[in-house]
Amino acid sequence: MIEFPTALTDEDFKFPIALNCCNACQIFIALKGFASDLSRMRVLLAEDDNRLSAIIARGLRNRSYAVDVVADGAAAITEGVVVAYDVIILDVMLPARTGLEVAAELRARGVVTPILMLTARDSIADRVAGLDAGADDYLIKPFALDELLARLRALLRRGPQLTHTVLQVSDLEIDTRVQRVSRAGREIPLTSKEYALLEFLARNQGGVITRVEISAHVWDDNHDPLSNNIDVLVTRLRRKIDDGFPEPLLHTRRGAGYMLATTSREG
Predict the structure, then answer these.
(1) Domain total of the chain
(2) What is the pTM of this model?
(3) What residues make up the domain containing 113?
């Protein structure tokens, strides 16, 4: 389903020529703007199938993307760390380092560039593995070039962002992927509601969260934020994450809400 793109026509390279300026100056200005557009759409393509990578690269370049191509995972990691790409396209089955390993390594190094994973594997488990490794989207082979371009446009609109799978507040750690909580190395079992509240507070650590916000996030629109369910839930959660530890993390701001923060930040 990969389609060979058509070549750019002469119309794509026409520059505006003003009557009161020299042609050379106008062409320089147009080229500068064109190069600026390209710099905002730089793509790293990691694909070991030479024919497929050539087709994809040609299709992207014909639509004004600047494309760098690598054929193995080790090179993908090097390029992904060194160069500020706008999007990274990773094949799952790369030599040297797999696409899953590349995505995980890039995320571990703090690279927030959106990642689109390409693979012939279409099972739910494979897709989950790719997304958990750090990919932002997943495209199954064979695919149409138009769909690839649409997904790239969506990722570019979304922009780079990195939501960490492990949240940390002082010595409290929350692994959001497996919903495991520990403090000072000791695992803390939580109910689903307790965990939902803790993760919500941790993602907004240092900020005061109102009862209305907690009600909407942990329950649903039909829950009454004035009921004592929230007080009971906060009390249970505070007992589990603070009791027995020297530094309290879950704080109450009377008349305002609740906050998860270290004592120094809470002040």
Answers:
(1) 2
(2) 0.58
(3) 10-158
